[in-house]
Amino acid sequence: xxxxxxxxxxxxxxxxxxxAMRSASDTLARFEVAHECRVLSAHRTPAATVEYxxxxxxxxxxxxxxxxxxxxxxxxxVAAHTLVPVLGVPMESxxxxxxxxxxxTVQMPGGIPVGTLAIGKPGAVNAALLAxxxxxxxRPSLREKLRAFRAEQAAKVLEQTLG
Length: 163
Ligand code: RP5
Description:
The chain is an alpha/beta fold. The chain has 6 helices and 5 strands, in the order E-H-E-H-E-H-E-H-E-H-H. Helix 5 packs across helix 6 (140-159).
């Protein structure tokens, strides 16, 4: 996906978030959505984060996914600097199992929205699927891929048997 100009930016506060966030990238790749993944931190690299986000819209990015753990301010800071929709993924943290990340990400003040997904890998997958759904509003072929994905997923569940 690196050759095309990215439609989705997948940001994470640390390389340690990649294990979970790889699932967001893999899901976007499955739908052939051009995207880029970057480590940018609200706390450790605040200026670089704002610089990236400020340029995102003019670079053609239509959705930003932001994942962070602990005092997880990345998604909120990103949302404060762009009109592009921001999807937040709380990372599971060693001390509080991601409850800290969830509350930090979801409890935004009215006026600056972050669409917050579940903690960890399910949230990473769903952030990507939601990004696909947003992009699919103006891309009928992508909507068909999403429809096919749902049908395939349902078929797999219905095939399940219990020993
Ligand atoms: C957050 O702190 C990151 O998003 C990560 O989830 C957490 C821990 O980061 P590391 O200490 O592993 O780099 O900023």
